[in-house]
Amino acid sequence: MEELNYLQLIKEFRKIKDNFQGYPEVKIAILGDNSTQQLTQVLKAYLHRNKIFVRVYEADFDVLDQEIYDAGSGFYQFAPEYVVLFTSVQRLREDFYRGGQGDVEGFKEKALGRLKSFWDKINQNISCRIIQNIYVVPTERILGNYTAKLNDAFSNIVQSLNQQLKEEAKDRNNIFLNDMEYLASWIGKKHFNDEKFWIHAKMICSPDDLPQIIQNIAQIILAGAGRSKKCLVLDLDQTLWGGTIGDDGLEGIELGEQGAGEAFVLFQRYLRDLKNRGIILAVCSKNNHETAREPFLKHSDMVLREEDISVFVANWDHKVDNIRLIANVLNIGMDAMVFLDDSAFERNQVRAMLPAICVPEMPEDPAQYVNFLNSLNLFETLSSSREDQTRTRFYREEILREKEKQTFSDIKDYLKSLQMKASFARFDPFHLPRVAQLIQRSNQFNLTTRRYNEKECESFMNNVEDCEPFYVTLEDKFGDHGLIGVIILKIETETMVIDQWLMSCRVLQRGVEQFCMNQVATCARRRDCRAIEGRYIPTAKNKMVANFYATFGFEKIRENKDGEVSFRLGVLDYAPRETFIDLAKEEPWPAGRS
Amino acid sequence: MAGRQIIEELNEVFCDVFDDPQIKIFEAMTAKDIDGWDSLNHINLIVAVEKRFRIKFTTKEIMSFENVGQFANAVESKLSHMAQKG
Fold first, then answer.
1. A525 lies in the same domain as A570
2. Does domain B4-85 fall into CATH 2.60.40.2310?
């Protein structure tokens, strides 16, 4: 794993001059009530390591109010994609001891109100993501253990303020919390809280701990750039249980509440929680298939069951080949995968052959597995929806589909047999979270890779005049795919511009693209457009759609120096494509939704 | 002035922090003598020295260091203090 050394990162920062590497750029504004210079440097260096070039707007020291309440401020002119509200408990402490002490409830209300009004004001002026600090709960406890009972002790006030802050943030989907309290506890507050650096330089913590804070913030930004991991590939022997199932047999492996086997129960519970939150689990084991399955079917202490695993591969082939196979079946990029294996040999081989996959070192002691995996924070997300919980089921259904496909000689017969139904409907409040999530996650089938957030999607939804924003859902006889596509159309005089077209790779080659293009053409006619225009903006990952518009008969009309290509098609020139998908009736929002 | 070994190690830290292998520290050397020794790098220097020698400066010390000599003496006295305590 990478080393998080403060001075090292500062040195890396000095070497970054301009975006010579052509990395994707992110604009981040940093507004703090403490000194943020070091923070800014480290953030830039850390994201540069992750191949993101940061353009920073760093406000002067402690001028949050001026920047936020002045609609013409430099901060708003900068138009950041992210703003980091780097607020410190030290400032809060100042306010508290300078008059907040008398009225505890009033103090909390005022402190929270200030942040809420920051958020609202920013939202009124620009559309961006707000990263808000959670306060570090101070360690002072004047009367020892008894302090826990004192509502008006500062530490308890901060704790309760944090709780309220989290509640408020829950309902606001462009607020992301930088959980400094968690981080400081995890690092150890004895080390983290170094008043010396506050007194001397108004720094929130020891500079040594800045890289950890930065990592925490950067992980939110990386998740926003679609860099989160989606799938965990697991070895079995000595990873999910102790010993070797092939040699030790069902009774012989270490697994269960007794003895060393408990470590594996704890680890499996953690993995199952991940699965329940939408992380795909796959198995990749050197074993006979039947032997490897046995514990999943018969061992009473197994927490993970076969239905928790999306793809189960156990054979004697190279793991590298098997991981490639898993990536293919799931149709996800190698860089969205994590490989966990206790064997250094396997890890090294996979690392050498598949550089994009994440292969963490594993601790020697299985009792440390949970803590270790947890500490890597690989699965940061900007949102979480009900569909995440059923993702594993999708993939398992997908494998059934693949099997059925093999029984048909003609692809059309197969598609017909799926009895597909799709909806193509205007954004509504119910679907907005999932729309925004798909926009964040989708990399490959994504024509323009514009990462709109939920708030921006909402404004498209409300713009009936110039905007036709659609989501697409699909179901078939094997199950419901849920929301699998987002197409945002903008009407510019007599041209319908396809601003955004992205789809989940789970549903390719079933005619969904054709179905959607038919719908787009219908919409264009309804809005009296003469032509449809599409753009392709190349990224490292979306080559698969470079010819997307050409296959529908669009003509290339221009290409700019960044490789962005524009295509155009006369509405009357479009011949509807044959598909085997029925248009599901739109359920009018909000009827029947709870 | 502090002992030679401390000076040598301190010199390495200076070179590291200011990214300049040519730096040769001396007792009367101040921030004016080194390119880039601003308040920001002063903090970086403190962090690096604390780490290297496994010591902690007091707030007053870091606010009052006027030249390299004082810096080195503080390091030495802290180290000898630690050695006495065992």
1. yes
2. no
